[in-house]
Write a structure and sequence with these properties.
16 helices, elongated, 8-stranded antiparallel β-sheet, 7-stranded mixed β-sheet, 722 residues
């Protein structure tokens, strides 16, 4: 593959010798006109692999910034979110467009930390290819392998970038071997690092047999490889050529190669680009964001090897009623179908939506339909609103640069769409459509919060609504039994980001211990009398009822039986007694938790012809249940969930041992045969409050689990839940 075009684009003036502002073209937006001239690429890799700094290197090499930013100083283009600056890692999806040889390359910087996997999946949804970033220092870990699996499930074409080649502990050969072991034999290098004086300063192109020397900076010099360099790379070159030929559609190519024919480099490059675009071959490029090593080669791969959006598949589409409609194409003149992949709140512009246009063209001052369906379980109720697009922007990190339109296949930012939330579909007002949403991970870490004062409660509700609109991985729950406001988050880092954003909006709040919603029941039969008699002059209150209570099987609910005889309680007051019993059951009889699974028999009582009333017998019914509880034995019940845990085989033993310490009951295991085991168990909810964090620590970040409420079981006498 030639790098001439890329080097020429790197030489174009872009503010490099101009003013001392870091961004060379902050006011110039990039609007593509032809989907074939667009590339949408997600940067994927574990936290700390070097994705954000790689973008700084690409922007610098492309002339879009005058100097590279720093993560420690919070000056990188893609990590402009205050939470990202505070945590010194990407916490949100960020878009950085480049213009390379008239090709608009939309680079999506995705978070690599597991807590923000929802943002990563949003990036994969918006992208047509993935650039997988692996550190030459840290290599492959279990999280990296899991992220590769996410991309594989999305069927995205991929390439691998090995970063941090300037580091003294960088080991390209070892990390390349780890990549091939973890990702498959389709991972092969296009370039090999060349050392000079102990440092990697050049790259040897295995197909071209030329060396690009970055010793003088980001604009490399090119020379022919020496005899020693070519000899050292001969084995890798042969393996690369065989790998390319194996993916070729020309079935005669392998025979010709084995017979000794020297295959034309142009043919190999064409077959390589086809295989990469098809997602069956994954080239490897070594880079350094510090020295600029490999940036020209990488820019060329982005443009030539990755496919345009016209070659990818589009999400399924339905009408507002959920009926399938004809498949869409990536056509600027087709019906409008765009998707909000991220929502943020700007203090001046309000709600800003990062949008991927799949079909049609978004234009300024055009009426649109904004709709969101299917996320009611996350607190996002179905909604349909007609709005108007006022301004369209091409974002460069936090900088919004105006553009007049955004065609199919492109990405843009829209401001002031009052109802738009992450995952919503933007379509024509005349022909509204709905795109099927991508899979959202389930938040499993509960965090209970309280406003510091009553005046802060309204502010907390408003701010939570804004944050939840842009974060489908956050579930806001007002627990009806404990009356706590619970934020269900992906992990501690996610919770910290949510709480920081609430406080940034002026909300004063604090976290409290999460209360497990227990229940109460009668452990043995009991009886009670409710006597509500009051006389204070005038009309009095008189009601007496006798009840018997007995426990029922778990899940049986509540039964009320009238066993009175002789009309001791008039028939009109029998429902009043039941109503009073039910009201007391909701309040609890011992620890303040609802009473469940009991049968109450009304066996006797007394009434007064004048002073008896509905209210009096309700009070008597409640009092009778309290008296029965005081005379009997009350059993606390705790919720138990059915848990499915997926872990690597090496961690099965430690996870099972941990479950036994959590009062869990193992119900089965199932090995998938690919190094993973699924463990099924029943675990009390009290033991799962921090399991999302503790399982990650126990399994080096590889374990994941799902949970489903199963039933309430008696709390052991030796255990006192909080």
């Amino acid at each position: 593959m030639s790098v001439k075009g890329t080097k020429d684009s790197a030489r174009t003036p872009g503010g490099r010798n101009g003013a001392e502002t870091r961004r060379a073209d902050a006011s110039a937006g990039i609007a593509a006109e032809d989907p074939a001239q667009i590339r949408n690429i997600a940067l994927v890799g574990h936290s700390g692999a070097g994705k954000t700094l790689l973008i700084e290197g690409l922007l610098s090499a492309n002339g879009m910034i005058t100097r590279k930013g720093s993560i420690a100083d919070g000056t990188t283009v893609s990590d402009s979110d205050p939470a990202a600056v505070h945590q010194q890692r990407s916490v949100t999806l960020s878009l950085v467009p480049l213009l390379i040889e008239d090709i608009k390359v939309n680079i999506l910087d995705t978070p690599g930390y597991p807590d923000f996997i929802g943002e990563m999946r949003a990036g994969l949804r918006a992208a047509d290819a993935a650039l997988f970033v692996v550190s030459a220092v840290d290599g492959i870990d279990a999280t990296t392998t899991a992220l590769w699996g996410e991309c594989e499930q999305a069927r995205l074409p991929r390439a691998v970038v090995i970063t941090r080649m300037d580091h003294p502990r960088a080991n390209y050969d070892v990390v390349l071997a780890e990549c091939r072991k973890a990702f498959g034999d389709g991972v092969l290098p296009l370039y090999l690092p060349v050392r000079s004086g102990g440092n990697v300063t050049s790259l040897l192109g295995l197909l071209s047999r030329t060396v690009t020397d970055y010793a003088s900076g980001e604009i490399p010099a090119t020379r022919e490889g020496t005899a020693d360099e070519l000899a050292a790379a001969e084995a890798a070159r042969g393996e690369l050529i065989e790998g390319i030929i194996a993916e070729s559609e020309d079935e005669t190519l392998m025979d010709r190669y084995l017979e000794g024919e020297d295959i034309d480099t142009g043919v190999l490059v064409d077959d390589l680009e086809t295989a990469v675009a098809r997602g069956s071959f994954f080239p490897v490029i070594p880079t350094s964001a510090v020295t600029g090593l490999g940036t020209a080669e990488l820019l060329e791969v982005l443009v030539r090897a990755f496919p345009p959006p016209t070659e990818g598949s589009l999400p399924d589409v339905t009408d507002l009623a959920g009926n399938p409609v004809a498949s869409l194409a990536c056509d600027p003149s087709g019906p409008l179908a765009a998707e909000v992949v991220r929502t943020s709140i700007d203090p001046f512009l309000g709600r800003i939506c990062l949008v991927r246009v799949f079909s049609g063209t978004l234009r300024e001052d055009s009426p649109v339909h904004v709709g969101g369906h299917g996320l009611a379980d996350r607190g996002h109720q179905d909604h349909d609103t007609d709005e108007r697009v006022t301004h369209i922007y091409s974002p460069l990190g936090a900088t919004l640069r105006p553009v007049p339109y955004s065609v199919a296949g492109d990405m843009c930012a829209l401001a002031k769409l009052g109802s738009a939330e992450t995952g919503d579909t933007i379509s024509s007002r005349d022909k509204p459509l709905m795109l099927t949403t991508w899979e959202m991970p389930e938040p499993l870490l509960p965090v209970a919060v309280e406003a510091d004062s009553r005046s802060d409660e309204d502010a907390l509700a408003r701010s939570l609504g804004k944050i939840a609109a842009g974060d489908p991985t956050l579930r806001v729950e007002r627990n009806a039994e404990t009356h706590q406001l619970v934020l269900w988050c992906m992990g501690e880092a996610h919770a910290d980001v949510v709480l920081d954003r609430l406080r940034e909006q002026g909300v004063k709040l604090h976290t409290v211990e999460v209360i497990t919603p227990l229940r109460e029941t009668f452990a043995a039969p009991s009886a009670g009398r409710g006597r509500h008699v009051k006389q204070s002059g005038g009309h009095g209150q008189y009601a007496v009822c006798d009840i018997e209570v007995e426990p029922l099987d778990r899940g049986a609910g509540f039964e009320f039986v009238d066993k009175t005889v002789g009309g001791v309680i008039p028939g009109t007051f029998i429902p009043s007694v039941e109503k009073g019993v039910r009201a007391q059951m909701e309040k609890g009889v011992s620890a303040g938790f609802p009473v469940v699974d009991v049968r109450v028999r009304l066996v006797g009582g007394k009434a007064h012809s004048v002073d008896s009333s509905d209210a009096a017998f309700q009070a008597a019914g409640a009092l009778a249940l309290r008296e029965a509880a005081a005379a009997g034995k009350i059993q606390l019940l705790e919720p138990v969930s059915e848990v499915s845990i997926t872990v690597t085989d090496e961690h099965v033993g430690s996870v099972m041992s941990d479950l036994s310490g959590r009062r869990g009951r193992l119900t089965g295991t199932n090995s998938s045969g690919d190094g993973l085991t699924e463990i099924a168990a029943e675990v009390p909810d009290q033991e799962l409050l921090r399991y999302a964090v503790e399982l990650r620590a126990l399994t080096s970040g590889t374990g994941r689990f799902t949970r489903r409420y199963l039933r309430h079981d008696p709390v052991p006498a030796s255990y006192s839940p909080s």
